[in-house]
Each structure stands twice: as C-alpha cells, then as structure tokens.
Specification:
Radius of gyration: 55 Å
Helix content: over 70%
Order of helices and strands: HHHHH
Largest sheet: none
Distance between the termini: 151 Å
Number of helices: 5
Shape: rod-shaped
Length: 193
C-alpha cells in the first residue's frame, strides 16, 4: 500500500529530477558550445583588430614621415621660387636698363644721321672740303692705323655688350700681334658688323 505508493511517488520524483537534470545538462552543454564558439569568434576579432591597429600604426608612421619629407621639399621649393623671383626681378631690371641705353643710343644715332643728312651739313661739307679734283691721297703708316684702330676699340669697349666684348678682345689681340696683318683685322671687324 502506502510503501508502494511512496515508492511510486519517489520513483516518479526521481525520474522527473533525472529528466530535469539531463535537460539542464543538455542546455548547459549547448550554452557552453555557443559560448565557446562566441569566445573563439571574439578572439579572432580581437586578433584581426589588433593586427589592423598595428597596420594602421605603421601606416600612420609612414604618413608622418611622408608629411615631414613633403614639408621639407615644400620649404626647399619655396626657397627656390623666392630665389628665382629675385633673380628674375634682377634680370628684368638689367634688361630694362639695357633697353633704355639701347634706345638712347638709337636716338643719338638718329639725331646724328639727321644732322648729317641736313642740307646745312651738306653745305658745310662742301664749303670745308676742296673740290674732288684736289683730293690728294695721303700715306698712312701701318703703325698709325693700328694706333687709331686700338683707340677706337678702347672707346667701343665701353659701350659693348658681353658677346661683342669677346670679339673686340680678339681684334685687340690681333692688332697687337706681329704675325697678323691689318687685312685680317679688317676681316674680323667686318664679321663682327
């Protein structure tokens, strides 16, 4: 009777407790598997993010170096541009001065030509020079011709540009040399003109 009922009740309670415990164990195992999987995924994510942080740190350091190099290059380029602008301004001023001198020379030449072409100058020439029949050829020694040419060269060198100065120096040396005749000097002057 009573014992049997108690036994049946205890057995039913035991079976229910065993079932509950087994289902709890099963839920626990599933939970542990899910948590283990979640932990593995989280560990992989941490490793990836750590690697990404390292890569970004390296990239940041490289960019900082690139920025420093670029700033140095920029400073050098700005210095070059400043020097270039200064040089250009200086050359421009020199060019303007050269153009001014050249225009003054052209004006002086034009005035001289105007004076020489004037009717008064023609009359003056006619009155100062004897007639064509009275021209007498004078002998000029080579030494005096060279001396006059040297004097003219020295005067011309004051107004000559850099390229003309080198040619004038060549003519000057030819005049002072013993081997070159006056014909060669005249040829050098013709080539220069």
């Amino acid at each position: 009777g009573i014992l049997k009922t108690m036994q049946d009740e205890m057995l039913a309670d035991y079976n229910a407790a065993t079932e509950t415990e087994e289902s709890a164990i099963k839920v626990f195992d599933e939970l542990m598997a899910a948590k283990t999987k979640e932990k593995t995924l989280a560990s992989e994510a941490i490793e990836k993010k750590t690697a990404r942080v390292a890569e970004l740190g390296i990239a940041l350091a490289e960019k900082a170096n690139d920025l420093e190099d670029t700033q140095e290059a920029l400073a050098a380029d700005q210095k070059f541009v400043a020097n270039l602008e200064e040089g250009c301004a200086k050359k421009k001023a020199e060019w303007e001065e050269r153009c001014k001198v050249r225009s003054e020379e052209l004006v002086a030449l034009a005035d001289t030509i105007k004076v020489l072409n004037d009717d008064d100058a023609l009359e003056l020439f006619k009155s100062t020079l004897p007639s064509a029949s009275s021209f007498v050829q004078m002998q000029v020694s080579t030494a005096s011709a060279k001396a006059r040419a040297v004097a003219a060269l020295k005067e011309g060198m004051r107004f000559a540009g850099v390229s003309d100065r080198a040619r004038m120096d060549t003519i000057f040396l030819a005049l002072h040399g013993k081997k070159v005749g006056f014909e060669k000097v005249i040829q050098l002057i013709d080539e220069m003109v």
